Amino acid sequence: MAPEILYGEPYGRRSDIWALGCTMIEIATGKHPWYNDDIKDLDDLKRRMLREELPQIPEVSELATDFIRQCLQHHKS
Predict the structure, then answer these.
(1) What pTM was estimated for this model as a whole?
(2) pLDDT value, residue 65
(3) Over the stretch 20-33, which tens digit does the pLDDT of each residue have?
(4) CA–CA distance, 24 with 42 (Å, rounded to integer)
(5) Residues in the chain, pLDDT under 70
(6) Which residues contact 14 (CB under 8 A, 6 or more apart)?
(7) In whole angstroms, what is the distance from residue 4 CA to residue 74 CA?
(8) Which of 8, 9, 36, 47 is the most exposed place for a label (fewest CB within 10 A)?
(9) 67 with 24: CB under 8 angstroms?
């Protein structure tokens, strides 16, 4: 779920970009983006996202890390 949805904004291009960043993490690790965090349930994940916490980015090239970070930007209108 993209942060914009949690903020009550409509689904759009930003949500797709967020999903791309999450997909890049999944490709690099073979696991969901928050696999390494102690997420108790969906509500815990939502709280972390609203606090603008990001999932751990795997060890990839500097260029790939920067790309993922840029995809996982929180944008509030």
Answers:
(1) 0.78
(2) 95
(3) 999 999 999 998 88
(4) 21
(5) 1, 36, 75-77
(6) 2, 4, 75
(7) 8
(8) 8
(9) yes
